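In the design runs reported in the main text, the only information available to the sequence generator was the tokenized backbone. The following block is the verbatim input for one such run; it is reproduced so that readers can re-run the procedure and compare outputs position by position.
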């Protein structure tokens, strides 16, 4: 883990050294990653749209025949929520319980508007998992405490991943908890000057296994390690793209 933290710190310094990035390069990079965030976050929850189909829907409004309407609505909802996350990340206002509920409302605003920002009053379970979530009666109290905690934390990787886990562990909503937790995490990462991190479909099993381990064993080490690895890989990707976008010396002299 120490080597991983050193690698992340080094890449973060390299990223900071490339700033400020040209506005056009930054917009192109953000658009690409925001579409990717939408595709990956929905895909690991069972959405059937491919990356290309997600991009075509978001950029051109092109729907895919034979794919469920809900999958299309989830993609549009999530992308809109990502744009809101970027707005929030650019501000200094604290993240609160209300922020989390509003984020969830946006994530399901078209696909499941009836549950948007509303705490579940029923038991919540994940099929095939032994994890037991808190009694629904306790959700309001747990979310108040979560809101107080997250409003005061520093925007750094360890706390952003902790914020992700804590929200998933409460599982306050009937659906969309994972998507909400991953975007809450990314608000903190963006505020800390890091790129947003996506959990790819091919990493789904490892991701869910580490979350399950954290819940059952009360040990976040595997989850923190997994998420730091994803951050390290994402920083590497960002650096590569930004370096390619930088004008060469011959172009600037």
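Verbatim output:
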């Amino acid at each position: 883990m120490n080597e991983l933290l050193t690698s992340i710190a080094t890449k973060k310094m390299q990223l900071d050294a490339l700033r400020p990035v040209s506005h056009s390069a930054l917009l192109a990079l953000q658009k690409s990653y925001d579409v990717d965030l939408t595709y990956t976050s929905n895909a690991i929850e069972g959405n059937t749209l491919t990356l290309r189909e997600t991009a075509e829907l978001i950029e051109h409004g092109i729907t895919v025949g034979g794919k469920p309407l809900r999958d299309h609505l989830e993609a549009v909802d999530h992308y809109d929520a990502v744009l809101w996350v970027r707005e929030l990340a650019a501000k200094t206002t604290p993240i609160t319980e209300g922020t989390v509920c509003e984020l969830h409302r946006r994530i399901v605003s078209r696909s499941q508007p009836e549950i948007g920002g509303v705490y579940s009053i029923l038991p919540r379970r994940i099929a095939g998992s032994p994890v037991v979530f808190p009694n629904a009666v306790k959700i309001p109290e747990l979310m108040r405490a979560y809101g107080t905690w997250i409003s005061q934390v520093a925007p750094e990787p360890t706390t952003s991943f902790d914020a992700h886990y804590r929200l998933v562990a409460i599982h306050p909503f009937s659906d969309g908890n994972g998507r909400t937790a991953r975007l809450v995490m990314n608000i903190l990462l963006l505020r800390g000057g890091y790129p947003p991190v996506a959990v790819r479909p091919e990493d789904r099993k490892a991701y869910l296994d580490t979350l399950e381990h954290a819940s059952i064993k009360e040990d976040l080490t595997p989850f923190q390690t997994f998420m730091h690895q994803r951050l390290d890989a994402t920083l590497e990707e960002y650096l590569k793209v930004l370096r390619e976008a930088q004008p060469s010396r011959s172009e600037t002299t």
